[in-house]
Amino acid sequence: MIKKQPNRKPGSRPQQSQHQSSSRDNNDFEYSPIREDKEQIRLNKYIADSGVCSRREADKIIEAGSISVNGTITTELGTKVSPKDKVMMNGQLLQRESLRYILLNKPKGYITTTKDPQERKTVAMLVKNACPERIVPVGRLDRNTTGLLLFTNDGDLAKKLTHPKHNIRKIYHVELDKPVTKNDMQAIVDGITLEDGPISADKIAYISPDNKTEVGIEIHSGRNRIIRRIFAHLGYDVVKLDRTMFAGLTKKDIPRGKYKSLTEKEIGFLRML
User: Fold this and answer.
1) Are 105 and 85 within one domain?
2) 175 and 235 in one domain?
3) pLDDT of residue 222
4) Is 142 a catalytic residue?
5) pLDDT of res. 53
6) How much is the pLDDT for 52?
7) What pLDDT does 54 receive?
8) Is residue 14 in a domain?
9) I want to staple 33 with a disulfide (CB 3.0 to 4.6 A). Which of 89, 98, 108, 119 is the partner?
10) What is the dihedral of CA 26, 28, 33, 35, to 10 degrees?
11) Is 22 domain-assigned?
C-alpha cells in the first residue's frame, strides 16, 4: 500500500504501512426514527422536513405569505417554531417527517437522480418502496459506477456528508485496462493536477499482488468523476469502478441492487463525523 505521509519533507522516501483490517460490531437493533426536538428550529427547516420542498424554496413560500403559525400568517425569514406549534401551508397542516437513512448497493446502468426527462433507469426506482418519506441520494455515482449510495431526508446530514470541508472518506475498487505501475500509484498519492485543480489520494494499494490491474483507492474528494479522471490523466481506462466504503459504511450483507435501513449505531456514527 502507498499511503500519504503527513508533513513529509520533499525528497524523503514514503514509509510503507501494513494494511490492517478492522471489524465492525454487528447491531441487530433497527433504528426507529424519532426526533429529539428540545429546541426551536427555523421555519424553513420545519417546512423542508415536512417533505414539501427544499429550504431555499421554503423561504420563497414564506415570503409569499402562504405559511401560518398558530393561525397567524408569517412572512419573516428566520422565524423559529417548536414541535408544539401548528404550521400550515395554504390551509394544509404540515407535519415533520420521520428521518430515514437508506443504504443502496447501486448496480450498473442507473443514473443518480430522482427523475429523468429521458426516462432512463434511475436509482430512485430501486428504493421507491424503502419508506413512505421522500428520500434523495447523498452525492452521486455515475451511470456505470456501482457500489454504496446513501439516501435520506435528513438535509443537515446530507449537507455535512457532501461538503468538502468535512473530508468524508470513500474507498473504491478500481479495475484498469492495464497494470498500474508503482510510480503512477505514488504520483496519485503525491498529487497530480487536473483541469479543475490539484488532487491526491490518501491511500492506494493493489487488491492482489498477483493482479496489478486492480487497485483499492481511498480518497476524500467528491468532485465529479474524480477516480476516472485521475486514471485517465495517467493514461489508463477504468474498466470497472465500485464504491466499497462511504463515510465508514460498508456493503456487508447488501447484495447488488438491494438496500437496507441504517441501524441506530450507524446513524450515530454518521452524526459524529
Assistant:
1) no
2) yes
3) 87
4) yes
5) 84
6) 80
7) 82
8) no
9) 98
10) -60
11) no
The residue from 25, 37, 49, 142 that is catalytic is 142
Are 105 and 144 in the same domain?
Answer: yes
Instruction: Tell me, yes or no, whether 259 and 160 share the same domain.
Output: yes
- On whether residue 180 sits in a domain, the answer given is yes
CATH of the domain at 229: 3.30.70.1560
In one-letter notation, the amino acid at residue 38 is: K
Contacts by residues 194-203 (CB-CB < 8 Å, ≥ 24 positions apart): 194/229, 194/230, 194/233, 196/223, 199/223, 199/226, 199/230, 200/4, 201/4, 201/230, 202/3, 202/4, 202/169, 203/1, 203/2, 203/3, 203/4
- Give me the number of domains the chain comprises: 3
Our CA dihedral for 229, 235, 237, 242, rounded to 10 degrees, sits at -50
Do 261 and 138 sit in the same domain of this protein? Answer: yes
Write out the residue range of the structural domain in which residue 119 sits.
Answer: 101-164+254-272
Average confidence (pLDDT) per 10 residues, the chain, 273 residues = 65 42 36 50 89 87 95 93 91 88 98 92 96 92 97 91 92 98 97 96 96 97 94 98 97 96 95 90
User: Looking at the domain assignment, is residue 25 inside a domain?
Assistant: no
**Cα(49)–Cα(58) distance, rounded to whole angstroms?**
10
**C-alpha–C-alpha distance, residues 136 and 156, integer Å:** 13
Q: Provide the pLDDT for residue 33.
A: 41
Out of 76, 93, 110, a domain closes at 93
